[in-house]
Amino acid sequence: MKLAKNKNQHTHRAMNQILNKQICASLSKDLRKKYSRRSIRIMTDDTVKVMRGEYKGLTGKVTKISTETSGVAIEGNKKEKLKGEKIDVYIHSTNMIITSLNTDDKWRLKILEKMPKSKIKSMKENAKKKSEVKSADKKKNEVKPADKKKNEVKPADKKKNEVKPADKKKNEVKSADKKKNDNKKSEKK
């Protein structure tokens, strides 16, 4: 498939389920800390602040949502037509931040309280790392007693390093024989 065709399927020709999910806005810093998520779908009666565009700085409640254009109409923001009619101005949902949420919907509260997948994934990774560290520490502790045993000199090893009295006598005899041979050689000369 061509890139343009993919883009059209994801945005313009998408099903209502997908279009609904696309009408999201990022949360304010306070709400991010509270709910531990970055963005959520906009609903009516949410308080919103516009961050970009012609209406930057405008705050108000959401009155209408357009799934076709991913636009949101804010209370009190109207445009006058040539004939004198006043119509709602739709602002794209990505240009705003949600400052307070409408918590009347029980389903929405459940979604907000549920932990995001990324957080669950990071918690699992942290748990794996901790278990790996603990197992490595246990292995080190097990290896240390074995190292101590290696470093300790066994009584048999001590005997090997020590010279036996019989070996001493042999060494003395050999050294005496060498001296005699050296004396004989020197006498012949």
Automatic annotation (TrEMBL):
Q: Which domain of life is it from?
A: Archaea
Supply the InterPro entries for this chain.
Answer: KOW (IPR005824), Rib_uL2_dom2 (IPR014722), Ribosomal_uL24_CS (IPR005825), Ribosomal_uL24_euk/arc (IPR005756), Ribosomal_uL24_KOW (IPR041988), Translation_prot_SH3-like_sf (IPR008991)
Where are the coiled-coil regions? none
Q: Which UniProt keywords apply?
A: Ribonucleoprotein, Ribosomal protein
Pfam families, per database record: KOW, Ribosomal_L26
Among PROSITE patterns, the record links this protein to: RIBOSOMAL_L24 (PS01108)
Q: Where is this region: Disordered?
A: 120-189
GO cellular component entries: large ribosomal subunit
* Any single GO BP term: translation
User: In the UniProt record, does the keyword Calcium occur?
Assistant: no
One term of GO molecular function:
RNA binding
Instruction: Tell me which SMART domains the record gives.
Output: KOW (SM00739)
Q: Where is the KOW domain?
A: 41-68
Q: Which family does it belong to?
A: Belongs to the universal ribosomal protein uL24 family.
Name of protein: 50S ribosomal protein L24
Could you tell me which species this protein originates from? Marine Group I thaumarchaeote
Report which gene this protein is encoded by: rplX
